[in-house]
Design brief:
Blueprint (H helix, E strand, L loop, with lengths): L1 H15 L3 H4 L6 H9 L2 H4 L6 H12 L1 H11 L7 H8 L10 H12 L3 H4 L2 E2 L5 E2 L3 E7 L5 E7 L3 H22 L8 H14 L3 H14 L6 E2 L12 E5 L4 E2 L3 H6 L4 H19 L2 E2 L7 E3 L9 E3 L5 E2 L3 H15 L3 H10 L9 H12 L12 H15 L8 H17 L5 H16 L2 H18 L3 H13 L14 H22 L8 H20 L2
Parallel strand pairs: 5-10
Antiparallel strand pairs: 1-3, 2-3, 3-4, 4-6, 7-9, 8-11, 9-10
Helix pairs in contact: 1-10, 5-6, 5-7, 6-7, 10-11, 14-19, 14-20, 15-16, 15-20, 16-17, 17-18, 22-23, 22-24, 23-24
Length: 538
């Protein structure tokens, strides 16, 4: 019932801003067009303002889930006209604020002290107001300039209500449109629910900020503001105030003498560094959260805020994603297709050569072109059609990564449209690839996993010995000792043990197609054989 009531409220907003008129611009079936033409609100509700303004106001009325959707769209200027893009861009930090007295009440309730006791100065006028939280500027008793972030009152109930409606719609789509079941909408909604509810916990956001600050502590690429933990908790966040230029304020960036080309390249480097080096990335990198440091124009540096949404990948996802991207850069479509099957993103019975041809047809037109000449809308449409043809499964754990990549591409287009995304990203990925298979990385991996391996190691020779004896002599004659392998069993055990231990090592090392890995696994196998031989001849 609550979902139905929410659906009716969405319909009310659509009618209020006459967004139904947008549907008449499409080739709808005749009965649907007739129904729309006969609706009574066509005579009762007047159209007020341009369509771009009506869309922005409707998203604000619909709440934070829809505002965030508008935030994502605002970075895709290649898909929108300039007027709509400008309207949606105001959603980034100019959502109507709630009353400042309510802000103070919430702060005092969370900190268990008055605002005048906690801060030397507190600005009643919000510094920024977004879909989930509101920010005020303040000054600590010790003199530092800070910002104070407060969660909007009642926002959790609103989000839960919208999520219930989304689940109802997903069930309806799955039941009525079987072809869309491959999108795994329920899994995507589950992932989104976790993300947006985590964003309501400001102590979690503070922890994310501290982690990112440590990751880039000795780097000039990205600056993360300091967190004041003694004044922060799940309801209130106090952090250092930064003074930077908005990343989409192109005129201010140029007046500061900052190279837009270098800034765009560093943005790509930051993204790939977070994803592949740290496996911990800022997943809400829209222009409202990203600034540029104006004090060092010769060494462009980004400054970031709002860390409520972060993402991470497993080691396996990292490995597959890196190999797919490198194969994509090298136009090795066969490997791309095979990797999609190997990691389970495509059904096991997929005809790899057909998927390879489909990827080639979509990808070839975009290579060696700057962003300004690439229609990513057409590319995404082509990839969607390819996914539909081959029954590709949407991966919920990659939804945040996909969203962040769209943000990065949108920022890059605004800063420096001539940036060649492929040429910028390829060296970063290749360098990460080499580090992952270096002897130092393998040593660090083995060192990290040694406690678990040490517990299992004493049992390994006996288990392997018994398994190999059963393989070599499934039904041993009575006169043959079970403790001494015959010649056939010896050579089968020799080969089998090398393969078993070699495979175990290869499984532990991601991207293990380097030439030194195989000899190393064989050497480990020989050591294991000596242990087994001594045990078998006791």
């Amino acid at each position: 019932m609550k979902a139905i009531l929410r659906g009716l409220s969405i319909l009310r907003v659509i009618i209020r801003y006459r967004l139904d008129l947008l549907l008449l611009g499409y080739a709808l079936p005749l009965p649907v067009r007739l129904i729309l033409w006969c609706m009574p609100w066509r005579l009762l509700v007047r159209v007020r303002g341009p369509v771009s303004q009506r869309i922005r106001l409707a998203l604000i009325d619909l709440g934070p889930v829809f505002v965030k959707f508008g935030q994502l769209l605002s970075t895709r200027r290649d898909m929108l006209d300039d007027d709509l893009a400008e309207q949606l861009a105001t959603l980034l930090d100019k959502v109507p604020p709630f009353d400042s007295q309510e802000s103070k009440r919430l702060i005092e309730q969370a900190l268990k002290q008055s605002v005048t006791q906690a801060f030397a100065e507190f600005d009643d006028v919000p510094l920024a107001s977004a879909s989930v939280a509101q920010v005020h500027s303040a000054r600590l008793m010790t003199g530092e300039s800070v910002v104070v972030k407060i969660i909007r009152p009642g926002i959790k109930l609103t989000i839960e209500r919208d999520l219930r409606l989304m689940r109802l719609l997903a069930k309806w789509i799955n039941a009525t449109v079987p072809d869309l079941r491959r999108l795994r909408l329920q899994g995507v909604i589950d992932e989104y629910e976790k993300t947006i509810l985590d964003e309501l916990d400001l102590q979690r956001e503070a922890g994310n900020a501290s982690q990112l600050r440590r990751n880039f502590d000795n780097s000039n690429l990205l600056y993360i503001p300091k967190i004041y933990w003694d004044l922060s908790n799940p309801s209130v966040l106090v952090q250092e105030r930064i003074f930077g230029l908005h990343v989409n304020d192109i005129e201010a960036i140029e007046n500061a003498g900052i190279s837009r080309q270098e800034l765009a390249k560093r943005g790509v480097e930051i993204f790939f560094t977070q994803v592949f080096r740290d496996s911990f990335f800022h997943a809400d990198m829209h222009p409202g959260n990203i600034f540029v440091n104006p004090t060092i124009p010769h060494d462009p540096q980004y400054m970031a805020v709002d860390f409520g949404i972060v993402g991470s990948l497993t080691q396996e996802d990292q490995a597959y994603l890196a190999r797919i991207l490198l194969a994509f850069f090298n136009r090795d479509y066969r490997q791309i297709a095979q990797l999609h099957v190997d990691c389970g993103w495509l059904p096991a019975d997929t005809k790899v050569h057909e998927f390879e041809a489909a990827i080639r047809g979509v990808s070839e037109p975009i290579f060696s072109k700057p962003l300004a000449e690439i229609s990513f809308a057409q590319v995404l449409l082509g990839l969607f059609q390819t996914a539909r043809r081959f029954n590709m499964q949407v991966q919920p754990q990659l939804v945040l990564l996909q969203k962040t990549m769209l943000n990065i591409e949108g920022l890059g287009r605004q800063l420096y449209p001539q940036l060649n995304l492929w040429e910028t990203a390829q060296p970063i990925l290749e360098q990460w690839f080499k580090r992952q298979v270096s002897p130092k990385q393998v040593y660090l991996q083995l060192k990290q996993e040694w406690p678990d391996l040490a517990q299992q190691l004493p049992h390994l020779p006996g288990l392997i010995h018994d398994a190999l004896q059963q393989t070599a002599n499934p039904l041993p004659p009575p006169h043959v000792s079970k403790n001494v392998p015959n010649g056939k069993g010896h050579w089968s055990g020799l080969i089998g043990l090398v393969l078993v231990i070699g495979a175990a090592v290869l499984q532990r090392i991601p991207l293990s197609d380097q030439v030194w890995v195989a000899p190393a696994s064989v050497l480990l196998g020989l050591v294991g054989i000596l242990v087994l031989w001594n045990r078998g001849n006791r």
